[in-house]
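Incident log, entry 3
Record: UDP-glucose 6-dehydrogenase (452 residues)
Problem: checksum mismatch between cached and fresh output.
Input:
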Amino acid sequence: MKIAVIGTGYVGLVTGTCFAESGNDVVCVDKLAEKIANLERGIIPIYEPGLAELVHRNHRDGRLRFTTSLPEAIAEAELVFIAVGTPQGEHGGADLRGIWAVGEEIAKALDEPKTIVIKSTVPVGTNAELARRMAQTTDIPFDVASNPEFLKEGAAIDDFNKPDRVVVGVRREEVGEQLHALYEPFLRTDRPFLIMTPESAEMTKYVANCLLATKISFINEMANLCESYNADINEVRRGIGHDQRIGFSFLFPGVGYGGSCFPKDIRAVIHMAQSRGLPARMMEAVDQVNEAQKDVLVHKVMDHFGNDVRGKTVAIWGLAFKPRTDDIREAPALVLIDALLAAGASLRIHDPEALDNVRAIYGDKLTYCDRPYGALEQADALAIATEWNEFRNPDFEVMARLLRQPVIFDGRNLYDPARMAALGFTYHGIGRAKVSPEECATITDGPDASTR
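Fresh output:
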């Protein structure tokens, strides 16, 4: 098929590239000339494992092209995907100005019937409103479908190629058949292709993200409760996760969620409910719990140093909101950075991919380290905010030598507390009691040690 994708951000570029990889002819459009020029040269604006190789191959083979001209892009397209940003607006709802502007431009450029597909995350009713607005501009027949994305940053290529399900919202059966034919190569393992109304499709995206965010806030609140009672959230998590009604997914305690989806989508749902006079008490609580959880590491660091970190140096491993991405939007690490800088600490930071994005915000306020061990040199403590695989099995002897004080604040529970204490570290996790070498010695060398 011939496809146009409007927007070359995270969703648009992954969508266009994966469609091209399955043999379609795709033109990606963006109004930013510099971004398009860079894509033509093979410079990818985001970090996503495997994406650069796919863009290069499909661009080289002529299946993937880039332009700043929307009329040129949609001239021969059968399907036009809208994948522009819908950031959080002033009152918490989604800012849809980009959707409306693209819709108007498409309507003005239409010279034959086409199917317009909204890929962006949008509030319920956007599909119908876009169709109404476009119909005021053009007499050419068109359809507007909804096709929400369910891509995880860091695993987007696999998610697109091997979807759990594909959801489309249509008003005509023929449009559903057209989209099914497009997605058929991605459904070979009998994953469901779910056809519903556009309103249900729009709501499905929000409900999915709300539920996942709820699970994260739930386990984080339980983690804080466990810690106050000297229970271990990791043991509790195993105790509940083997219940088939519960499972393990998204029940990992930490320092809160971030990124471009969960925070804004939760607030968009709150706004949607309020606009209809409905309460959104659970979603409000999820958001509040998450914002508070981002301060947990701050409190642990400040408590450890007697609420005075002036003259102290803290190393931070992990800046992106999650591993395998360079995305720092709403990242918990930024809350930690802001609080410690305000309190007078010096910071040495490392992330495998996100250093440049953080440097663009903080400039020379931070010391940027290309290697994790480099961040530890002469630091009084290490704080871990993102669970990159590179951090899971470090050389603890090297770490102890480099740190002024062997203190770790682990916001992702990467290490075993007993082992850390035995290695001479004071170790603070999430939802677990603090351990230190002194406490380890008391346990192993106490009067009843021989009977244990």
